[in-house]
Amino acid sequence: MSKRPPRLSRREENQAAERSEVRAAVQRFLLTGLIALVVVAVPVGLWVRAQAAANALNNAVLLTQRLADFSLGPLLTEAVLDGVAGADRQLNERLEPRLADGALVRIKVWDASGRVIYSDLPMLVGRRFDLPSWAPDLLAGGQGRASLEAQNEVENQFESGTGDLVEVYVRTIAVDGQALVVEAYFDDADVRADQSSVLLGLIPTFLLSLGALQLAQLIPAIQLARRIQGHQSIRRKLLQHAIDASDLERQRIARDLHDEVIQDLAGLSYALEAEEMHSTPENRPLFAQAKAILQKNVSTLRSMSSELYPPDLDELGLPEALAQLAARVLEHGIEVKLQIPANCDLDRDRAAMFYRVAREVLANTVKHAHAGILELTLMQDDDRTILLIHDNGCGFDLSADAPDTHLGLRIMRDTIQVAGGSLEVRSWMGGGTSVMVTLDRQAPAWTR
């Protein structure tokens, strides 16, 4: 037969709950940091990718410019410009190795009129095509241009099936000094490789930097979470001490009333009764009236002392304690409708909070609501417990400052909020008042 694990003490439960809250806060911090990392990394990655592509295209422009200046320009003779047969032999020999390895896919040389002066495809030589709108600027000495895209223009009938190509336009000078446009097409593999190289060089460094920043903030975040938890724990204790002090004062007042004032008044009532029996007939009505007043006051004081002194919730249980509170409301002529389960799975602290709220609400209802009906409902499921109290009294204006008589309820609201629950008050002038208290069944236990 397996042994049940030993039950933790209240202090150990509180310490475990506080550690759990700190862990939860740190986990939320890490999750938020991870989300922020992704949110920042994605646009930065896209920006780096765009910059890497731009850098690779710039390199392609520089490579083509060197090719135009040192390999093509000196060989663009007047014979080549005039289309003399065989004049382009040296150009073909110079470009053949580059075309053979596949890096250079196509090359064309244009004049200012759009006529193809030279191409590695002889059938293009002599044909005319419309030059881009920015070609005059390039011929006048402007910067070269490069793009990475599929080639679908009329002039690209021989490149249209090759997928994405790097298209580069640069300026060159022929032997006779004429400015020409060199158009070269490169396989995109080199550009993609340059782009990937830049990405692989920057992105890991960037991510590691963000990760290091996140880790550097982790220790201060843990310390901050612990400090906040410490302040919350102190606030819980202060609120709990305030409520405990209130309960102790109620107990003291109830005890003093019962042991002194009520006993003295009861003794005086017996004395008046004895005097009534021995008095003259004309004085007996006066003694009877005084005795009746005393007995009424004794009954009122006993009821007050019973309300002041909280019941033993461990012995009675919350449902029975609430039923006893409701029974006292009946004595004031208010009809009470109860919906309370026979059993309620709550620890002592949370049961005490529900009881205190119910006591405050019912006391305010009796004193101020002028209600005819009061409904008290206690509901519980796997996750939470709800106490709902509604009366059909006169209500009050929630927008106005809460009266001093609601001070106890305001203290309970703060207490329940610190415990992870909520207390909501709704009231309408002439339409009654509703109070709903919600507490998580797994809320952290309080330090008493």
From TrEMBL:
Any one annotated GO CC term: plasma membrane
Record key words, sorted: Cell membrane, Kinase, Membrane, Transferase, Transmembrane, Transmembrane helix, Two-component regulatory system
Origin: domain of life: Bacteria
Identification of the protein by name: Sensor histidine kinase
Domain Histidine kinase: 256-443
A Pfam entry, by short name: HisKA_3
Lineage, opening ranks: Bacteria, Bacillati, Actinomycetota, Actinomycetes, Micrococcales
Organism: Cryobacterium gelidum
UniProt GO molecular function: phosphorelay sensor kinase activity; protein dimerization activity
Keyword Hydrolase set for record: no
Positions of transmembrane segments: 29-48
Annotated membrane topology: Multi-pass membrane protein
Compartmental location: Cell membrane
